[in-house]
Amino acid sequence: MSSKKLDFASRAVFYEPEPESQSVSYPIYMSANFQYGGDIYDQIVAGARKEVNIYSRCGNPTEYKFEEHIAQLTGADACLATASGMAAISHALFGILKAGDHIVTDLTTYSSTHEFFDHRIGDFGITVTFVDTSDPVQVERAFTDKTKVLYFEALANPTMKVPPMRKLVELAHSRGIVVICDNTFASPAVCLPHSFGVDVVVESATKFIGGHNDAVGGVITQKSDILPKDWLEDVRWNTLNKLGAPLSPFNAWLLLRGAQTLALRVEKQCSNAAALARYLEGHEKVKRVFYPGLPSHPNHESAKEQLRNFGAMLSFQVESEEHGVRLLKRLQLCCFAASLGGLRTTTQVPGTMAFLDIPSQERHAMGIVDGLVRFSVGIEHIDDIIADVEQALDQMHIDV
Ligand SMILES: *Cc1c(COP(=O)(O)O)cnc(C)c1O
């Protein structure tokens, strides 16, 4: 059956069984290589690639099943799975850019992405301009005749910035510039950037898609009028296969399993996040809350247009970085750890954790103020989450 007419939640669950065994749970093909049996050798010599199995760096049936699932779930024409979210980002960029090209990106991106733009990509002769992509005027001004890519995040860490996608896509496409969006913080359950015209979506599947804090992986999806139709297959053969960052079959299986409960998990996580944001906004020890679902958020209008349920991520500012750390050390139910998107509420202080290696001046330009605490809200009962946060806020002034 075609899943096109189904609701997102049904598409998340549904996939065709493996033809031979008809097993409902898709098998893990834990094999590095595959036999050249029957006429496979002749097919490969004649040019067959994805239609046959050769070697798992070039592709593996479990990985293909995961890719097919994500493509139909997100309305993409094609999907390529990678070993991590960072591999998805670097492969998407290296699949488009050459020495001499220019990128426009946001001041605020995921810490490793920012460091890649700021310290590494220049070594390949690619230049970068950082702007605030929530302001289309700044974006337009930064474009030059060398600009090949506009890159931003659908929901940007940690201020939860929501750039106006339709407008940015229109500006970029009128100059033939490819738009790449990192959708990790939103997840496909909250935002489908292809539906706003974004050409390439990259995502860390480690986060919401997997959802259980147990597997690292990434995805690139394509739906574009300006890229060649076979662009992503070209990235598979000529970039991923050469740089060598395929998703392992076991992780593909874990992420495929995780994706089936994506809609259900994220719906609960979003309603918990909204309730926690409202609670925090009324708390005397909280200076400011950043949640796109709150009318006080500067991008609340873009968020209403582009996001379903406003996401499961929020941040808030307390008196100082030290107060933030003390707060997190006091939490008992919520988990003080890096990463996000899993079943458990996970918290961190972005300034001195994820963004530690970024100088404080740059951090401040990203909106990472001192005393910022970030929550990835999980599926625990909201009363228990709030009770845990409340007891930690109550004791935040006491040295741990
Ligand atoms: C985690 C993350 C990444 C990188 O993903 P990995 O799977 O850790 O490589 C990229 N972008 C965002 C927004 C992320 O949160």
UniProtKB/TrEMBL annotation:
It comes from Pseudaminobacter soli (ex Li et al. 2025). GO terms for molecular function: carbon-sulfur lyase activity; pyridoxal phosphate binding. CDD domains: CGS_like. InterPro entries: Cys/Met-Metab_PyrdxlP-dep_enz, Cys_met_metab_PP, PyrdxlP-dep_Trfase, PyrdxlP-dep_Trfase_major, PyrdxlP-dep_Trfase_small. Gene3D superfamilies: Aspartate Aminotransferase, domain 1, Type I PLP-dependent aspartate aminotransferase-like (Major domain). GO terms for cellular component: cytoplasm. The modification N6-(pyridoxal phosphate)lysine is found at K207. Belongs to the trans-sulfuration enzymes family. Its cofactor is pyridoxal 5'-phosphate. This is Cystathionine gamma-synthase. The keyword Methyltransferase does not apply. GO terms for biological process: methionine biosynthetic process; transsulfuration. Keywords: Pyridoxal phosphate.
